[in-house]
Amino acid sequence: MLQVFLALLNTAQERDKFTRIYGEYRDLMFYIARKYLDSDADREIVVDAALHGVLRLLDTIEDPVSAKTKNLMALITRNKCVDLLRRRNGSAEGSWEETAEQAVLPQGQGSELSLAIAAMSEAGRDAILLRYYYGYSAAEIAKLLGISKDAARKRLERAKAELKGLLEEDER
User: Which CATH number applies to 106-172?
Assistant: First the structure.
């Protein structure tokens, strides 16, 4: 599978970066896919789709082997699992919370902000993390999540309001 992805890249630097990402996070991606999907074929489809998504964002990834990249890979894979289940009119079974605590939340997990982010809805948490932790623009988030730019902006707007409400609730 790796050779197919490498053939899509133009420079040796891109191929090297993608090879490092693939080698470092492939097992994590399958681990996450196992939490959602029963079929090995479905897991392959999801990991393949997630890796295709990474190709589109490759130039925005600064360090291929970092906690930030690991978190991004986990988030992309989880979203692809949920997308597949939704297309089949199913629901995302299994708990993302334990993975989120270990692989998606920023460092300093005990902080008030991190705890509020963990308490957010899944869509809100993803939007906040992609925008403010990973630094993606609304347009990049739209591309990553497979939604329109307007939907990405609206999701960010709702997520900020949700986070503000959770933080204000904690102050009381």
Answer: 1.10.10.10
